[in-house]
Amino acid sequence: MHTPDGFLHPWMVGALLVVSSLVVGTCLHRLRGTLSTARIQLFAIVTAGIFAAQLLNWPLPTPVSAHFVGGALAAIVLGPRLGIVSVSIVLAIQAFVFGDGGVLALGANVFNMAIVETLGGYAIYQLLAGYHRPTAIVAAGWGSITLAALAAGIELGLSPAFGYELVTTVVVMGGGHALLGVGEGLLTLLGVWLLETTGSTASDVSRQGAQA
Amino acid sequence: MSVQGSHIDRDWMIKAIGGLALLVAVSPLFAIGAEAVGYIEPLEHAAELTGARTHATVIVAGLFTEYGIPGLGTAAGTLIAGAVGTVLTLAVALGVGQGLAE
After folding, report:
1. What is the pTM of this model?
2. Which positions 28-57 of B are in contact with A (Cβ < 8 Å)?
3. Is residue A2, in this structure, part of any structural domain at all?
4. Which residues of chain B have pLDDT under 70?
């Protein structure tokens, strides 16, 4: 879902760079002076884990495939603000060191995968966690990547490089990720479960995450 | 691990870093598998359908373009690039986290 340079309309590139910078900057400002040593280390491990998990392109025998993105996982275990910062760091490193996603399109990629996906996943999780937590985590993973893909589909469909074929881009992006997003949901559940069963408790992660 | 304390459990950190190493270690298998099945994401599919593929430009290719290293095969390139990226991400996140410390 990493948009390269050249795909988006220039005004959209600029607008999303500004919006994403403001959101990430606000998150950093609000988080300043709040992280304990333990939270910093958890944040670092989760961020590196998201990078490493994104290396794993699913070799599915399907017309299209995907890889884990991790916005919902970051939001659930770190909280929405720290989650946004976490995924933004991953995207910036991918763009500048690995050429994965354009450097000018970084604002769009941060908007889609760090902001929309993280906030969307967190909202779904908060909405459903009171009923059945595992289902809420899977739904958050699935819903978050689908929302991020829809956002990307709208941006691409409103750009001349894609011939303004909005319906095509929204259907392909939204539909493709809605199907593949089941994997994102299950891997989000696995990630939360691993973090919790290796020593932390659900209440610790959730309570601290909500505060960040 | 207690995320409420001021210090994280050393055992948990060792397990977590082991988990990261495991993810990096298996990444070549996924890279080879993805190559074998002709891995393509929905975004690339949309670009093909609309003729947008030729509009993609590269402003910064990065040191490890496409998570590989020129001259090395897929497996070795992915393994090294993945290891460097994971350590770099860990270091940057620790640095940012330190800047947000209480």
Report:
1. 0.93
2. 30-31, 33-34, 36-37, 39-47, 49-52, 55-57
3. no
4. 1-8
